[in-house]
Protein: Osmotically activated L-carnitine/choline ABC transporter
Amino acid sequence: MNDFFTYLSRNWDQLLELTYQHILMVILGLLLALLVGIPLGIMSARNERVASVILAFANIIQVFPSLALLAVLMIMFGLGFYTVVIGLFLYSLLPIIRNTYVGLKEVDESISQVGKGVGMTPFQLLYKVQFPLSLPFIIAGIRIAVVIAIGVATLAPFIGGEGLGREIYAGINLRDPNKIYAGAIVAAILAIIADFLLGKAESRFKTEK
Structure:
């Protein structure tokens, strides 16, 4: 244990840089998933036939082994940072699409009818009534997506990416347990913090609802 803390004290700057790279990949992948996933979730809630196609496609991506998917993306887009971001974007889609769809479906129809009765347009009804009421579900989807993305991002070194995975796999190659523990523990802490903060946000919106 003393060796581990000694390793941390000597390499904290490198670990900080790898953590920054890890967080950046996750944030960019998540932002892309939000930009695409929320509109797809809204489309799904409006049309069940469309929903079956979109959700089936997102499910296929989700069940595809992460390393295999990253390998396919590497062939298509090459090695590097942006290929990892595309992979994280694809893995983050399903929980965001599904939870947006479920959240909008859970809005009481009588509330929507009241909005229509006071002359709201479909966009106003969505923006001012339905979307705010579905936020707890959407945040729950984001919460799941972030935790998944943090885990998948540790595979980034296999396709030329950076992040905490580089520390883990360097430790495996060098048979250095301190490197493995450092990368794995920091990644786990990131996932726990993200889950806790988004859980708090989800609870807050549920209370306001």
